[in-house]
Design brief:
It is a single chain. This protein has a ten-stranded parallel β-barrel with strand order 3-4-6-8-10-12-11-9-7-5. The protein is elongated and about 60 Å long. It is 4% helix and 71% strand. The chain contains one helix and 17 strands. The longest helix has 10 residues. By secondary structure, it is mainly beta.
């Protein structure tokens, strides 16, 4: 357990603060943190810019946050919009809003009911994605990976007319993989279920492979 000082940051209007180490940092208005920030609890309900890196045990973002450097949170919940220029690391992530990361994302558990764009690798022990819009990562890796489309088949077809609702990755690799509405060049793993509306160039499986008739798999092989 980190030994935090007793000081807090509370921003209710438009204000800025220097970085440092605090117990709680709360932004309900428009705040700018100049420098690296370390805290036990970070909560943003308005607009916040961290002009450095962020490290928190618990982070909750309902508004809009931009982090210039890397970010680390043991527990992170996003209901708003977050942009991270560096990498994101931690334990448990819950994404209900919009997450954009210019680097990698590493966690023990990654759950998404929103939209994410990860320009590096998404790596987690368990990955559960219910896609509400276009999601992408350069590579996706984990022990258990489940990607499904959120909503009914009717809404899927309706939304698909107006926007791309696929999850896109170059490579998806894991022990157990279950995919819907996914586009990938290579899917590699032990037990693989290719559900509806997937476009996969190559599947390499070790134990089991099931392919939904509505999906396109150009080549598959048992390794």
């Amino acid at each position: 357990m980190y030994d935090y000082p007793s000081g807090d940051i509370q921003i209710n209007g438009i204000a800025s603060s220097n970085g440092g180490t605090f117990r709680r940092v709360t932004v309900d208005g428009m705040g700018t943190i100049h420098g690296d920030l370390t805290c036990m609890d970070f909560a943003c309900n308005g607009t916040c810019k961290v002009d450095g890196s962020l490290r928190a045990e618990r982070a909750s973002i309902d508004g809009i946050s931009k982090i210039k450097g890397a970010a680390h949170a043991d527990q992170l919940r996003i209901d708003g919009k977050v942009t991270i220029n560096g990498k994101l690391t931690g334990e448990e992530f819950q994404v209900n809003g919009h997450l954009k990361i210019h680097g990698d994302c590493e966690a023990e558990r990654f759950e998404s009911n929103g939209i994410f764009v990860i320009q590096g690798m998404l790596n987690a022990g368990m990955i559960e994605v219910a896609a509400h819009g276009p999601c992408s990562a350069q590579e996706i890796g984990g022990e258990q990976i489940t990607i499904r489309h959120a909503g009914s088949q009717f809404m899927t077809k309706l939304l698909g007319t107006f926007m791309n609702t696929h999850v896109t990755a170059t490579t998806i690799e894991g022990d157990y993989i279950s995919l819907e509405h996914t586009t990938a060049k290579v899917v590699r793993g032990g037990r693989i279920n290719i559900g509806p509306d997937c476009i996969i160039e190559r599947v390499e499986y070790k134990d089991e492979l099931h392919i939904h008739p509505s999906s396109i798999v150009k080549y598959h092989t048992q390794i």
